[in-house]
């Protein structure tokens, strides 16, 4: 398979095709949709932060343990992890290539998966098991 060399001239030429168009479009749309959802959930997050300011652990557990607050909060954490993965991917694409690129993408995905599962799991544990 012949490797295509990407140059500034090939990027400037609109007839040159490089990269995966479907994956790039999916990435673009996912980043915008998760960003919009994060903005919409900002009100819930602000409510929780203001409500829990100066409270002790028992009050925190009672607020987050409410089904109508805890489940959307867990969803927000999961969506923020997806948004974080895509944002980190954009940055890592600029600095790494080859096998190092694949390794950093794997580590990025694993890190965001662990953060998302741990955060959402902790909130859902409080909601369903106190």
From TrEMBL:
Pfam families assigned: Sdh_cyt
Pathway: Carbohydrate metabolism; tricarboxylic acid cycle
First-listed, main subcellular location of the protein, grouped into a coarse class: membrane
One GO BP annotation of this record: tricarboxylic acid cycle
GO MF term list: heme binding; metal ion binding
GO cellular component: membrane
SUPFAM superfamilies assigned: Fumarate reductase respiratory complex transmembrane subunits
Stretches that traverse the bilayer: 35-54, 60-82, 103-128
Superkingdom: Bacteria
Signal peptide: none
Cofactor(s) required, per the database record: heme
Membrane topology: Multi-pass membrane protein
UniProt keyword Nucleus present: no
Alphabetized UniProt keyword annotations: Electron transport, Heme, Iron, Membrane, Metal-binding, Transmembrane, Transmembrane helix, Transport, Tricarboxylic acid cycle
Record's keyword annotation contains Transferase: no
Subcellular location: Membrane
Subunit description: Part of an enzyme complex containing four subunits: a flavoprotein, an iron-sulfur protein, plus two membrane-anchoring proteins, SdhC and SdhD.
Summary of the function given for this chain in its UniProt record: Membrane-anchoring subunit of succinate dehydrogenase (SDH).
Protein name per UniProt: Succinate dehydrogenase hydrophobic membrane anchor subunit
């Amino acid at each position: 398979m012949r490797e295509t060399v990407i140059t500034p001239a090939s990027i400037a030429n609109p007839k040159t095709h490089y990269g995966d168009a479907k994956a790039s479009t999916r990435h673009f749309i996912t980043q915008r949709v998760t960003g919009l959802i994060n903005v919409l959930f900002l009100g819930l997050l602000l409510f929780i932060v203001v409500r829990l300011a100066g409270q002790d652990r028992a009050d925190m557990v009672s607020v987050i343990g409410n089904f109508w607050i805890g489940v959307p909060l867990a969803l927000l954490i999961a969506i923020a992890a997806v948004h974080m993965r895509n944002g980190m991917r954009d940055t890592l694409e600029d600095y790494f290539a080859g096998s190092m690129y694949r390794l950093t993408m794997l580590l990025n995905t694993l890190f965001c998966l662990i953060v998302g599962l741990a955060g959402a799991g902790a909130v859902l544990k409080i909601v369903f098991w106190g």
